[in-house]
Specification:
With about 110 residues, the chain is of the alpha+beta class. It has a single domain (about 1-114), classed as 3-Layer(aba) Sandwich (Rossmann fold). The protein has helices spanning about 45-65, 85-95; strands at about 1-5, 15, 75-80, 100-105, 110-114.
Length: about 110
């Protein structure tokens, strides 16, 4: 069985072969299908990949189910410089938003919108 072990926050995981897991008292082993997972290219850090993996589906769900975008729509994205906000801008563009208003803030305070 292949597995990744993270030993400390901010450190790259160690990959290797591990024995088959054995459930201890009160534990359950859950096996998942590998089909919905994608390999991470070597030039993308694990941190960046995790940000895309979290922000992308959240933005997709909001813009396709909660408030579905129609071609020609105007979309306001608060926090457009974050992972989810950046993905929201791209998803809005993908679905044909006519105008995307992206608000951003800097450490020194509000900078307006782009």
């Amino acid at each position: 069985m292949k597995a990744a072990v993270v030993t400390d926050f901010g450190q790259a995981p160690a990959y290797g072969d591990f024995r088959e897991p054995v459930a201890g008292e009160g534990e359950t082993i859950v096996r998942v299908c590998a089909a919905p997972f994608s390999p991470i290219p070597d030039d993308i850090s694990d941190v960046r990949a995790a940000a895309v993996a979290a922000g992308g589906p959240a933005s997709w769900a909001v813009l396709t189910r909660r408030a579905p975008i129609q071609p020609g729509s105007t979309v306001l994205v608060n926090g457009a410089t974050g992972a989810a906000g950046g993905m929201a801008v791209q998803i809005a563009r993908h679905f044909g938003a006519r105008r995307i208003i992206a608000s951003v803030a800097a450490a020194s305070g509000w900078t307006g919108s782009k």
